[in-house]
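Tutorial, part two.
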Amino acid sequence: MEARTVEELPVGDDWQYEPKWDGFRCLAFRDGDQVKLQSKSGRPLERYFPDLVEALRRVGTKQFVLDGEIVIPIGGRLSFDDLLMRIHPAASRVAKLAAEYPAMFVIIDLLANDQGHALVQSPLEKRRASLETFAKKHLRKHARIRLSPATTKLPVAKKWFSTVGGNLDGIIAKRLSLPYRSGERDGMVKMKHLRTADCVVGGFRYGDGTRLVGSLLLGLYEDGLLHHVGFTSGFTADERKRMTAIVRPLIKAPGFNGRAPGGASRWSTKRSSDWQPLRTKLVVEVRYDHFTGERFRHGTGFIRWRPDKRPSQCTMEQVKNRGSETLKLLK
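Running the prediction step on this input gives:
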């Protein structure tokens, strides 16, 4: 099942609320000694998570289908960067990473029980009860397979949303009366964390085939150095004209005196090194959902210019999270 995004959590007796974990969605199948992991797009994941395959083989029953999220806990928080590193073509590299930082499977639904009976046509209320029974019976002492919490109490869900932060991606709400509807977004919604940050504009890139701004390059200070942390784009034609008039007079190296755009990373493209540095005079407010691996995970949304803020006020402190609280929710 998939979820559509909403701005407010739904209210009513027919809703169950769960944390939205920041990992790889996965279905785990076991039939005898055979274990299969399937991504949301239907691709096999066993080669990237051999440690999780072995963990699932240690479950005390040989039949089940679980829906859940693959995460990697490091130092009391979840690391999406280390999760991404697992998708590597070299089996030796995957094995090394698996030994250093084993994956965890956070289960959210039971699609077939330990008797091999399919539960997808059962309403969520019954599936959740079966899942909790399954977890108590088979996962009580299993460190690498954990049960995600769930509640029907809206205040509890709102507390999760407001206090956990970090690698908790938001809150999922599901209708208790509905069966499991694979690939559909009916009866399942998500409210994600959206945060804001004030960033220095340390440079910009021109749009493809034009001399107008395509994206603004964002920076945050740490220990006196301005580090490149991402970008914001998606401007209208009029906005790009106005921005170009603002930034062109400020073109001057170095722009970023810490980590600069263009370095090798999993986000690099052939245009990564093609950018214009700016004097550090401009501050913008942006919205974002995740900051991990010393940068914004995705492109951020431009909100407004902040002429009232000094560039020196734009520090990494804004984006540090409370991810160490995340794992306390897991049973």
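The domain at 195-319 is CATH 2.40.50.140 (OB fold (Dihydrolipoamide Acetyltransferase, E2P)). In part three we will examine how such features are distributed along the chain.
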